[in-house]
Amino acid sequence: MESVYPKEPLEVPKEVHEQPEQEQLLAPPAPPSYDQATATTTPTPAQTTGPGTVPATTGTSTQHTVIVVPSSPYGPDPQDVQCPFCHNYTRTRVSYRPNSRTHLIALVLCLLQLYCCVCLPYCISSCMNTNHYCGMCDHYLGTYLRK
């Protein structure tokens, strides 16, 4: 069976050790001089296209940016949270506020001539939004919106 390794060490040619051209290619480019940096010339489109810019297009296509706003992390019930104001771990204090759905239900009850029931949507917490406050420092933390 033949050995995979050579019997004698391989000689490395001197050309491999001396490669200044490749070292220059790997070196970062020098920064511009003061005169180049302060010159008031209009940049080319290749210079303006960077990670924070959008290249201009001459066609009819447009680029839209969609921003997704995260929903409130709070629910309809009190929750254990760390307050961002006082940094205490506490259970939130909740208060209920009427919303447009609450008023709409009351209006429908009024139109159905159920006048004695008009106050019920204002007494039932599931018909209103829930505001969360810190249990220690009483700062407003967020709102759970009923849909």
TrEMBL record:
Compartment(s): Endosome membrane; Late endosome membrane; Lysosome membrane
GO MF annotation terms: zinc ion binding
This protein's UniProt keywords: Membrane, Metal-binding, Transmembrane, Transmembrane helix, Zinc
Family annotation (PROSITE patterns): LITAF
Sequence ranges of Low complexity compositional bias: 36-60
SMART domains: LITAF
Residue stretches making up the LITAF domain: 63-146
Taxonomic superkingdom: Eukaryota
GO cellular-component term (any): lysosomal membrane
Keyword NADP: no
Region (Disordered): 1-60
Keyword Transmembrane appears in the UniProt entry: yes
InterPro entries: LITAF, LITAF_fam
Biased composition (Basic and acidic residues): 8-20
Pfam hit, one: zf-LITAF-like
Membrane-protein topology: Peripheral membrane protein
Transmembrane segments: 104-124
Alphabetical list of PANTHER family matching this protein: FI16615P1-RELATED (PTHR23292:SF14), LIPOPOLYSACCHARIDE-INDUCED TUMOR NECROSIS FACTOR-ALPHA FACTOR (PTHR23292)
Homology family: Belongs to the CDIP1/LITAF family.
Protein name (record): LITAF domain-containing protein
Organism whose genome encodes this protein: Drosophila virilis
Lineage: Eukaryota, Metazoa, Ecdysozoa, Arthropoda, Hexapoda
Gene that encodes it: Dvir\GJ22034
